[in-house]
Specification:
The chain is of the alpha/beta class. It folds into three domains: 58 residues, no CATH class; 379 residues, Amidase signature (AS) domain (Amidase signature (AS) enzymes); 38 residues, no CATH class. Helix content is 38%, strand content 13%. It contains 18 helices and 15 strands. The strands form three sheets. It has an eleven-stranded mixed sheet, sandwiched between helices. Strands 4-5 form a two-stranded antiparallel ribbon. It has a two-stranded antiparallel sheet with strand order 6-7. Helix 8 runs parallel beside helix 9.
């Protein structure tokens, strides 16, 4: 009899293992901020347990990271329409002499390299071999390279030289070597996402950004590091280093693009941002970064972290270079359904005076702003531009941050369920493995309501942008970084000096939705009268 009872108990326990009890419901209510009665819990129990079986059935379906979320985020408030009109992108030559040694080209801007290649003063193959040599020499020290795509690069460079010799010039990026953050798929090469569970992953697809740059004749020379699954600067091979101080990290998650661009290992790079992943490493490494408007550059073939917040953009040595790259990679592709077909209108110097430029007044107060930020504001005022004081509308922005958490956990759901998250290097509380687990406790209702609240934030920001076309703000002031990533507004971040530790600082320019040309033009005007972007890390500088 005891044996029968024991066996029955085991069966009962086994059944209970995957079911929810009334006490479980009572505990879960605390997370929801609700309290149900006993009778309400009685009524709930069967439905909740039923749903568990539905969850289990769904989990039997394969949902790889490249299966997109079918509900698409539109940052435009009701009544607003995307801009229309013709593209307007005028570019002036940047005459540049060939240096005595080819390595002296390492820190040249995209416009300078474009001029040298177009006028046949240098060849693409020369530049490609030079940058590959620097990647091999300095990449291990900076821990910024995952894969050097040497075979592909030489093939692309030779093709570029042959086309240019025959008079077929594809445009300003033709023959220029570049590096990709290793969340962009390239056939025949690993796409590691910086994380051990994916370190041998090879995807049979080509990211749209890679495809567009290839069509423009650019030469892919490396897959660069990112903090594992786009967080920080720690990846499965180490910690990406800051070329200005190799004892420090390069920040993230576009750590490799920031470090490699700053150290002159690539002509330019492509990074990504969900919440600061271009702005932060661009700042720390002293390069220029463009985070485009949401929905202007395709994410097809790129790792998904947050379907409603991810953006891809260039990291360069000048604003003009970022504008050239943006002009190439923007546009629809029939793959990323969030894309909006809008013109790229890049104002001339004369047209800048017609733009309304704001500055967040409280961010530049003596007690808040750094000396570099105050100096940046003075420089802008000296350009004869009218600057209008503004303040960001009040809103509980931080309370919306779990939108990213929920989407990221869904994007890497299988990693959590299979316990492969244990393989990741960072295992602290504030790292993806724990954050993905934490996201399981976000109620679906709260996620939906957070996105409804997000619409209210968009409306408030739209009202603000009725008063200005661009505003300037210290790069990490208040909630602006999260705020504008949630709303999808474009940002250009440029170097504006150094801190007491000798590493770079930056200032940020924010533009209205889909008006990336305006924010690029204002940032360019600032950069033209400063030389912070022309400063290079001494250890990696080329001495002819």
């Amino acid at each position: 009899m005891k044996k029968i009872l024991f066996a029955t108990a085991l069966i009962w326990l086994g059944c209970e293992k995957n079911t929810v009890s009334k006490s479980n419901l009572a505990s879960a209510e605390k997370i929801m901020g609700l309290e149900f009665t006993r009778s309400e819990r009685d009524s709930l129990l069967d439905g909740v347990n039923n749903r568990i079986s539905q969850f289990e059935e769904l989990r039997s379906l394969a949902l790889p990271n490249n299966v997109a979320f079918p509900l698409y985020y539109n940052p435009l408030p009701a009544g607003m329409n995307p801009p229309v009109g013709k593209d307007k992108f005028d570019f002036n030559d940047t005459p540049t002499e060939r240096p005595e040694i080819i390595e002296a080209c390492a820190f040249m801007s995209v416009p300078q390299l474009a001029y040298l290649i177009r006028t046949k003063r240098v060849t693409s193959e020369e530049l490609t071999r030079m940058y590959i040599d620097r990647l091999k020499k300095y990449g291990p020290e900076l821990e910024c390279v995952i894969t050097i795509t040497e075979e592909l690069a030489i093939k692309q460079a030779r093709k570029a030289d042959l086309e240019i010799a025959r008079g077929k010039y594809r445009g300003l990026l033709h023959g220029i070597p570049w590096g990709a953050k290793d969340l962009l798929a390239v056939p025949g090469y690993k796409t590691t996402l910086g994380a051990i569970p994916f370190k041998d992953q090879v995807l049979d697809e080509k990211a749209t950004v890679v495809e567009k740059l290839e069509e423009a004749g650019a030469v892919l020379i490396a897959k660069l590091t990112l903090g594992a699954l786009a967080w920080g600067d720690v990846w499965f091979g180490g910690k990406t280093r800051n070329p200005w101080n190799t004892e420090q990290g390069a920040s993230g998650s576009s750590a490799g693009p920031g470090s490699a661009t700053a150290a002159g290992l690539v002509g330019f790079s492509i990074g990504s941002e969900t919440w600061g992943s271009i702005v932060s490493p661009a700042t720390v490494n002293g390069v220029t970064g463009l985070r485009p408007s949401f929905g202007v550059v395709s994410r097809a073939g790129a790792m998904a972290l947050s379907w409603s917040m991810d953006k891809l953009g260039p990291m360069t040595r000048s604003v003009e270079g970022a504008a050239i790259i943006f002009e190439t990679i923007r546009g629809t592709d029939q793959k990323d359904r969030t894309l909006v077909d809008v013109p790229f209108q890049y104002p001339s110097k004369k047209q800048l005076k017609h733009l309304r430029i704001g500055y967040v007044a409280s961010a530049f107060e003596d007690s808040v702003a750094s000396e570099n930020d105050k100096a940046s504001l003075k420089i802008l005022k000296s350009l004869g531009l009218e600057l209008v004081p503004i303040e960001l509308p009040e809103f509980p922005v931080e309370a919306l941050s779990f939108i990213l958490t929920a989407e990221a956990a869904a994007a890497f759901d299988e990693l959590t369920r299979t316990n492969k998250d244990d393989e990741m290097v960072r295992q602290v509380k504030n790292a993806w493995p724990n954050v993905f687990r934490d996201a399981r406790y976000i109620p679906a209702v709260e996620y939906i309501n957070a996105n409804r609240a997000r619409l209210l934030l968009n409306q408030k920001m739209a009202k603000l942008m009725e008063t200005v076309d661009v505003y300037v703000i210290p790069s990490f002031y208040g909630d602006n970084l999260l705020r504008t990533n949630l709303t999808g507004h474009p940002c250009v971040v440029v170097p504006n000096g150094f801190n007491e530790k000798g590493t770079p600082t930056s200032i940020s320019f924010i533009g209205d939705l889909y008006e990336d040309g305006n924010v690029l033009a204002v940032a360019k005007a600032y950069q033209e009268v400063t030389d912070w972007h022309k400063q290079y890390p001494p250890k990696f500088k080329v001495n002819p």
